[in-house]
Amino acid sequence: MRSYPKTHKVKSRAQHCCALLLSLLLCLPSAQSIELPDIGDTSESVLSLAEENRLGAAFMRNLRGALSIVSDPEIESYITSLGERLTTNSGSQQRFNFFVVNDTTINAFAGPGGHIGINTGLIMTSETESELASVMAHEIAHVTQRHLARAFESAKQSSVPTAAAIIAAIILASQDSQLGSAAIATALASSTQKRINFTRQNEKEADRLGMSLLASSNFDPQGMPSFFERLYRSNRGSESQSLEFLRTHPLTLSRISDTRNRAAQFPTAKNYDQTNYLLIKTKLQVLSRHDSEKSIAHYQQQLDSATPQQQNIARYGYAMSLAKAGKYSQAMKQIQSLIEQEAERIPYQVAAANIAFSAGDLSQAATICEENLKIYPHHHALSSLYGMILIKQGAPSKASALLYEHLRRHPSNPQLYKLLAQAEHLNNNLPASHEALAEYYYLMGLTHIGIEQLGIALDHTKPSDNSTTARITYRRSQMEKEVEEEK
Fold first, then answer.
1. For the segment 86-132, what is each residue's pLDDT rounded down to a tens digit?
2. Is the terminal CB of the chain with fewer CB neighbours within 10 Å at N or C?
């Protein structure tokens, strides 16, 4: 299999500029206090759900090429399960995709097609799971109320100079996200056309419906005003709204008061287990620390002073810090202590499997995965890790079978295709290997490399294998068509 230098990504960004432009127009945040006229509920006639879903898929491919998307399966699983807990009560037929952006700024956004991104900075700033869920519920409401499709109607009237300015801003954003955001804001502010923005009414509507989602999903409705208030207080005194979240979701005392009054209308939420939320926050904190020894010392100190309720979280952070420093036997000892207390806590089992894998004990790692997959079939983190273990153990056929099955549930996960390419390469199934690589590059926004990989797959296909040839040829024609449309 070929490897490709990073220069392809820069080239691809330029090729995908037009597609990304349209995506950005749909999800541009309300950075300015720009008011739009009431355009009515015409979203379906302007942009159907099917069209928005296709646009959303392109949006995600371009986003992966421009932003650092967290690919840790455990973090992916957590944010998805949290989102699904909310969307189950939304009454929407829209399929949602939740993902985490590796960015310390406090922000979240909704893109077309139900794609909702949450920055790591926002997760780390939240103090309860209900606060985090409140932001996600707000973004879900933007999607279910078709605010993006309504923005699209206004976007169609943008002038060519404005569009050109935004395209230039996209190129800048590929080098410096803050510079790109500033350029986009300037381009919109200087235009005499309709501003592409969520209106104040959209924000209020998203707050109101988001609050209902929180309550119906057994979260604390007070999570929304408490999070808003803390951000507002931390930003008070500055001349401009310096927090990214406040630039994209402008807060006023009136809006905070509205959410507080609305939350008071719902019954007091019952206490529920937030351990998994706290473990994910701890994992993100450990991953973000550059000095492993300082991280070890930090959690060791927490262990010495923690209350009984905080002990397990501190011990988990201590174990993860030890593992990051390569002290696997010590890390496993701490995790085993947690498992002895609460064997059914799946993050502990995932941590144990990962520590064993990193230590080179493939047999132990495989056993942990096998035993837990019997209890939690198709668990994303365990299935992904088990696929890697099988490849390392020299069982690529078993790995391929596992990954093909898992991809049925996660058809847009690039990392699974990358793993599958490795397994099929070891199986000496080169057409399938390059097909999988093609999908990986395609999902990463590198369609032209995906086309190249499909060409290589055809070169390795047997002349008598007509069905494989037809499938690959058809897929290549689809990708080539998309490239032409984007040009």
1. 999 888 878 899 999 999 988 888 888 889 999 999 999 999 999 99
2. C
Same-domain status, 256 and 310:
no
251 and 315 part of one domain? no
Neighbours of 401 (CB within 10 A): 14
Q: What is the pLDDT of residue 156?
A: 52
Task: Domain count for the chain, please give it.
Answer: 2
H or E stretch at 52: helix 49-66
Q: Which of 72, 103, 129, 139 is catalytic?
A: 139
Q: Which residues contact 401 (CB under 8 A, 6 or more apart)?
A: none
Give the pLDDT confidence of 356-411 residue by residue, as tens digits.
999 999 999 999 999 999 999 999 999 999 999 999 999 999 999 999 999 999 99
Q: What are phi and psi of 287, to 5 degrees?
A: -65, -30
Residues 213 and 350 in one domain: no
Question: Which H or E element spans position 298?
Answer: helix 292-305
Active site residue 139: yes
Q: Is 390 exposed, middle or buried (0-12, 13-18, 19+ CB in 10 A)?
A: buried
Compute the distance between CA of residue 482 and CA of residue 448 in angstroms, rounded to an integer. Answer: 10
What's the confidence (pLDDT) of residue 172?
39
Greatest Cα pair distance, the chain, in angstroms, is 73
DSSP structural state of residue 110: E
Checking if the pLDDT of 183 tops 80, the result is: no
Residues 6 or more apart whose CB falls under 8 angstroms from that of 154 comprise 36, 39, 194, 195, 196
Shared domain check, 306 and 241: no
Range of the domain at 290: 273-359
Q: What is the pTM of this model?
A: 0.82
Q: Is 203 an active-site residue?
A: no
Q: Are residues 151 and 239 in the same domain?
A: yes
Tokens 């490795």 correspond to 422
Domain boundary among 359, 374, 408: 359
pLDDT of residue 47: 66
- The Cα–Cα gap between 150 and 34 comes to 15
pLDDT, residue 244, reads: 58
Q: Which of 263, 281, 312 is the last residue of a domain?
A: 263
Q: Judge residue 222's burial from the number of C-beta atoms within 10 Å of its C-beta, 0-12 exposed, 13-18 middle, 19 or more buried.
A: buried
Residues 232 and 317 placed together within one structural domain of the fold: no
Q: Which of 207, 220, 424, 435 is catalytic?
A: 207
Count of other CB atoms within 10 angstroms of residue 324: 16
